[in-house]
Design a protein that fits this description.
Number of helices: 8
Distance between the termini: 62 Å
Helix content: 40-55%
Number of strands: 6
Bound molecules: zinc ion
Shape: globular
Radius of gyration: 19 Å
């Protein structure tokens, strides 16, 4: 068995966030020189799935095994997943900033949504039913994570939570999150990190201006 849990240390998420928004956090410091890509291979995609608990360790191992059998399909799935992530980021960033949507981004999202939904099926569980994917070949099974991400994006785009999407006010962060605060005034993805940094910056500039 390949140890995958150690690969997940770098990932981060916003508690209570939607999966599609947390997916966009796998590129950190998007807008500055410290830009840090956390997804560099199909294996990284699986590690993120483990971190987000959308895959069990057993499922991740199975998918890793399939990826080794179908390296070209795994590489294509990985590249498509990163393109999807960037389209999701731009779509929701534009919503947060009231900017115009790029038709290319919606087209890419719709192409992947159509693929995912063409394999969607309802599965009976003990006391309920769930939406899953019924695929009849291993190469398609590789797409589980991008399909979960695109479904999450479609759900959020069509939900009444859409107007709560925000981009973190810290210029070097710009992470996407849902503002579920009572008066819809949350500005930072995380008060402990970006919020405190902004406060520290304000404090520093105030001190500076006083000493001048
Ligand atoms: Zn932030």
């Amino acid at each position: 068995m390949i140890e995958m849990s150690k690969d997940i240390a770098d990932f981060d998420d916003v508690p209570g966030n939607w999966l599609c928004l947390d997916f966009t956090h796998t590129l950190q410091n998007r807008y500055n020189a410290q830009r840090h890509e956390l997804l560099n291979s199909y294996r990284d995609l699986l590690a993120w799935g483990l971190y987000m608990r959308i895959l069990t360790e057993e499922e991740a191992q199975q998918l890793l095994h399939i990826a080794e059998q179908y390296p070209q399909e795994a590489l294509k799935t990985f590249n498509d997943a990163v393109s999807l992530r960037e389209a999701i980021y731009r779509i929701f960033y534009n919503i947060a900033e009231d900017s115009i949507q790029q038709q290319d981004d919606l087209a890419l999202l719709n192409t992947m949504l159509a693929q995912a939904m063409s394999r969607a099926c309802i599965v009976a569980e003990q006391d309920s039913f769930s939406l899953d994917w019924c695929v009849d070949n291993d190469a398609e099974r590789l797409q589980r994570i991008p399909w979960l991400a695109v479904r999450s994006a479609a759900d959020l785009l069509t939900s009444d939570k859409l107007h709560e999407v925000r981009a973190c006010a810290a210029g070097d962060c710009r992470w996407l999150f849902l503002d579920i605060s009572k008066n819809h005034s949350r500005r930072w993805c995380d008060m402990q990190t970006c919020g405190n940094q902004a406060k520290a910056r304000r404090h520093y500039s105030r001190r500076k201006s006083v000493s001048l």
